[in-house]
Amino acid sequence: MSAKIEINTEFITLGQFLKLADVIQTGGMAKWFLSEHQIIINGEQDQRRGRKLRAGDKVKIPGYGDFFIMEK
Q1: Distance CA 37, CA 34 (A)
Q2: What are phi and psi of 37, to 5 degrees?
Q3: Which of 17, 19, 66, 70 has its Cα between 20 and 30 A from that of 37?
C-alpha cells in the first residue's frame, strides 16, 4: 500500500519530499540520507536532492515504503 503525499505547488524537491513524508526530521539530513539509501522514482534510481517531484510521481524507499505524490 502506498502513502499519499499531497503537495499544493507545481513541484517539490526530493529533499523537501523526504521531510514532508517524515522520512527525515530536518532538511539538513537529506544529503546524508540520499547518500546512504536507495531511492526509486518512477522506476528509476535517483539520488539528487534537487530532483523535482510532481503530482503523479511514485517514490519507493526500501525499508520506508512506497509514496504517491498528489495535488491537494
Answers
A1: 5
A2: -130, 150
A3: 70
Q: Are 51 and 12 in contact (CB under 8 A)?
A: no
Q: Distance (Å, rounded) from C-alpha 35 to C-alpha 14?
A: 13
* Cα 8 to Cα 23: distance, rounded to the nearest angstrom: 19
- Kindly tell me the burial class for residue 44, based on how many C-beta atoms sit within 10 Å of its own C-beta (0-12, 13-18, 19 or more): exposed
User: Is this structure's pTM higher than 0.70?
Assistant: yes
Cell numbers given for 46: 535517483
Q: At 40, list the grid cell.
A: 526509486
**Residue 62, beta-bridge partner list:** none
Asked if residue 1 has pLDDT above 80, the reply is no
